[in-house]
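Show me any protein, keeping tokens residue-aligned.
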Amino acid sequence: MIAVLGALSVEPMTGYAVRENIRDVLGHFWSESVGQIYPTLADLERQGLVRRQHGARPGSSMFAITPEGHEHLKELLGEPIQQAPPRNGLLLRLFFGSTLGPDACRALLEQARADARQRLAGFQALRAAITAEDNPDQLPYSLITISAGEHSARGVIAWADESLAALDAAAPEAPAALDATAPPE
């Protein structure tokens, strides 16, 4: 509900635009069930927190947040943050790395680093796009959240580099290759 109201607090949108905005912008740090967006919009409309307007195309609807919706959003944003219990499949696998083996752990770390580099590039592109928009009231807040994503991605890259080095340092020395020309002992 917060994500939908928040998206509509920026500007009126169609349900499809809300879905795309949540996926493409908020999706970097917030996961929302796409199947819940239209029922949430209908529920918010019943509560008087958004109003539906006819869209530019027949059959399409624009949704706009109402003053009551703004107040409700402020209340929701003011509630204490509920931390979700951590569930990190990568760290779970690495914790049991002695069973998985160093090569598989190395592959997981390399993939995590590659994914983080891709996320960092995405955040940098998002920074450029948002900076180019004309929304000075929202800009500092958008940049704060983008910065958190950039720092997180850089942190994963540094951690993966450090972890790969630790795996390399822990690897037993490979036996010297047998010289085929040397006489057997």
